[in-house]
């Protein structure tokens, strides 16, 4: 019995029907942001796409989750105006970015009276580096030597073309550039944690420079910070699924690919299980985009019969995971902060774990009174009991904002994404999109590229994988 909701010809696990496919039938395994980007690009090019996701919801490691309290994101994200491919595909799939995100100028602002700083790029469309110079002149909480230190960093990095001959840690880079301890504490360390989800002492300086090139070193619009108003699944993955289906494709959640097999170098056989396919099925495609997590991709590639995937599997299993924890605190709906988000001075030794706090009510009125506190590279903090961590974060907010009521939330929810990213370490070798196997491309934020594990990195990888398959089909 065939399953018309999957693709081509399928048979149950007791036997295989003869495949009769066209060369334009593509499977995308994994409906995270990379897989969704690949699926949209292929559907736009006229391919019949089947998007397969093992989980019930779309979005991978950036998605909406159902909790016993309310629907929440599994983490708070900030996009940049430089995320050109993400914004392009959002627009292509019908997402109005003017409504879906709140656009703010580049900034690093701490609560008043906490010993932090107030750094905001001007709203005027000044060319780089004038917007940075204007922000420095207006910045509060930085001494003259701090401002000169930041200006020297920007000037030297620009002169170097934002490139290093040999990669090193961010901490070593900051030492080379004679950055002040205060500027490291208030600017560079929180930026490194937010962008790379890796502490400066073991984070790649080159990848950090790539991010700075497109924020501090770019024109104002490219350096804008975009805060999602919509939940992460609605922001792009669900729109991508609708686009694929509108272009004749299929989207199946709860469909796990158990194995890949190459059929005479011209077709790919997928063994799929789950409720979405009513058991276990084998079905055929002319091409495949493998857009799962790195470990899952390595497992599938390793088990392909008669294929030497040792080198790429070695790269895929070398990634060290980094966690991100989001502590949601719900207060009375009238509770709000003065700004949509603030940076926080964290000090884990004093049980001050929060690094940024977001007022979700200023992004979505349905979430009034909800604050989201982010802890990047959160392994040690996440190891604590959730009740103690939430209590510590609530007390931290009460103290820094001098508002005792913030120490008494109505409820809390701690969400830790244990494999939110990989450690972006110096000299890390990331695999390309090409697997060396005809008709099979790799996609994920862990593939080779300028950016660390970000939404834009995932989307760019998905687009590159789609182009690779389109190019091979044209030959």
Number of E-type strands: 21
Q: How many individual helices?
A: 16
Low-pLDDT parts are 1-20
Overall pLDDT metric: 92
Class based on secondary structure composition and strand pairing = alpha+beta
Helix content: 25-40%
User: How large is the radius of gyration?
Assistant: 23 Å
How far apart, in Å, are the first and last alpha carbons? 34 Å
Q: Which outline best applies? A: globular
Strand order of the largest sheet: 11-3-2-15-21
Largest sheet: 5 strands, parallel
**β-strand amount:** 15-25%
Topology:
Layout: E1 10-12, E2 25-29, H1 33-44, E3 48-53, E4 64-66, E5 71-73, E6 79-80, H2 84-92, H3 97-100, E7 101-104, E8 107-109, E9 118-120, H4 130-138, H5 144-159, H6 170-176, H7 181-196, H8 205-213, H9 220-223, E10 225-228, H10 232-235, H11 237-246, E11 250-253, E12 256-263, E13 267-274, E14 279-285, E15 287-290, H12 294-302, H13 310-316, E16 321-330, E17 341-343, E18 356-359, E19 370-376, H14 379-382, H15 386-400, E20 411-422, E21 440-442, H16 455-474
Parallel strand pairs: 2-3, 2-15, 3-11, 15-21
Antiparallel strand pairs: 1-14, 4-5, 6-10, 7-10, 8-9, 12-13, 13-14, 16-19, 16-20, 17-18, 18-19
């Amino acid at each position: 019995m065939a399953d018309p909701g999957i693709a081509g010809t399928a048979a149950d696990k007791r036997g295989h029907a003869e495949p009769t496919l066209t060369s334009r039938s593509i499977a995308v395994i994994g409906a995270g942001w990379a897989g969704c980007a690949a699926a949209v690009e292929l559907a736009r090019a006229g391919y019949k796409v089947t998007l397969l996701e093992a989980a019930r919801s779309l979005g991978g490691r950036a998605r909406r989750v159902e909790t016993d309290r309310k629907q929440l994101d599994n983490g708070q994200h900030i996009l940049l105006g430089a995320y050109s491919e993400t914004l392009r595909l959002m627009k292509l799939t019908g997402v109005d970015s003017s409504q879906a995100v709140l656009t703010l100028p580049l900034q690093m602002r701490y609560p008043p009276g906490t010993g932090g700083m107030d750094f905001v790029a001007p709203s005027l469309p000044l060319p780089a580096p004038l917007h940075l110079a204007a922000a420095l002149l207006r910045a509060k909480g930085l001494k003259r030597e701090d401002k000169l230190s930041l200006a020297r960093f920007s000037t030297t990095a620009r002169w170097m073309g934002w490139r290093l001959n040999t990669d090193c840690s961010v901490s070593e880079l900051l030492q080379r550039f004679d950055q002040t301890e205060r500027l490291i504490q208030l600017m560079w360390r929180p930026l490194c944690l937010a962008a790379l989800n890796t502490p400066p002492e073991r984070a790649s300086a080159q990848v950090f420079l790539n991010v700075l090139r497109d924020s501090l070193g770019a024109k104002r619009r490219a350096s804008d910070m975009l805060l999602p108003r919509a939940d992460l699944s609605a922001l792009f993955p669900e729109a991508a699924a609708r686009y694929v289906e509108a272009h004749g494709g299929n989207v199946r959640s709860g469909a796990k690919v158990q194995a890949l097999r190459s059929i005479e170098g011209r077709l790919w056989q997928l063994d799929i299980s789950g409720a979405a396919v009513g058991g276990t099925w084998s079905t055929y495609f002319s091409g495949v985009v493998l857009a799962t997590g790195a470990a899952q991709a390595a497992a599938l590639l390793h088990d392909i019969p008669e294929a030497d995937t040792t080198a790429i599997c070695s790269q895929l299993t070398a990634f060290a995971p980094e966690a991100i924890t989001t502590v949601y605190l719900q207060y009375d709906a009238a509770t709000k902060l003065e700004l949509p988000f603030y940076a926080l001075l964290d000090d884990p030794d004093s049980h001050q774990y929060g690094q940024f706090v977001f007022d979700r009510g200023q992004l979505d009125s349905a979430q009034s009174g909800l604050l989201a506190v982010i802890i990047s590279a959160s392994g040690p903090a996440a190891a604590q009991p959730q009740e103690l961590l939430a209590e510590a974060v609530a007390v931290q907010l009460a103290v820094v904002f001098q508002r005792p009521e913030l120490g008494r939330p109505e409820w809390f929810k701690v969400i830790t994404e244990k494999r939110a990213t990989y450690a972006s370490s110096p000299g890390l070798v990331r695999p390309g999109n090409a697997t060396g196997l005809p008709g099979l491309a790799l996609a994920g934020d862990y593939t080779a590229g300028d950016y660390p594990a970000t939404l834009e990195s995932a989307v760019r990888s998905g687009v590159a994988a789609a182009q690779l398959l389109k190019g091979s089909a044209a030959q």
